[in-house]
């Protein structure tokens, strides 16, 4: 069973990761169907391509803060890789959003593998076990 604080951080990390995935998928759908990013960004309440990219980066920052609370070295390395993808070349927006989407999905898989590996080690101690000896 997960400690409450870790469960909370995992929940919010998942929400921000999902938000990034949705933005990438909507952007790809729009671009492939002739809708510009500027039009899509207005639907999100943002301003232009930079607004969409900044929205992704802000979601990533929130994701990173939550992941730091539970991730191991492998998870943090994958997180850094995702940050690198967010800062990659943006000349071809379809390639950019495809690349970021792949990175988001890879990071989600890394988190799943992390919890499969550490799950047997997680144990919540009862209150009696946490008390100092008298």
UniProtKB/TrEMBL annotation:
Protein name: DUF403 domain-containing protein
All residue ranges annotated as the DUF403 domain in the record: 9-62
Lineage per the UniProt record: Archaea, Thermoproteota, Thermoprotei, Sulfolobales, Sulfolobaceae
Organism for this UniProt entry: Metallosphaera hakonensis JCM 8857 = DSM 7519
InterPro entries linked to this entry: DUF403 (IPR007296)
A Pfam entry, by short name: Alpha-E
């Amino acid at each position: 069973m997960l400690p409450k604080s870790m469960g909370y951080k995992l929940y919010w990390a998942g929400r921000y990761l999902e938000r990034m995935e949705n933005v990438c998928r909507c952007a790809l759908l729009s671009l492939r169907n002739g809708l510009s990013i500027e039009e899509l960004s207005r639907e999100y309440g943002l301003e232009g391509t930079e607004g969409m990219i900044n929205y992704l980066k802000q979601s990533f920052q929130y994701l990173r803060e939550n992941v730091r609370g539970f991730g191991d070295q492998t998870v943090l390395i994958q997180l850094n890789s995702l940050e690198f993808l967010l800062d990659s070349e943006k000349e071809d927006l379809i390639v950019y959003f495809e690349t970021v989407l792949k990175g988001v999905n890879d990071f989600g898989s890394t988190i799943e593998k992390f919890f499969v590996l550490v799950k047997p080690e997680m144990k919540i101690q009862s209150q009696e076990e946490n008390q100092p000896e008298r």
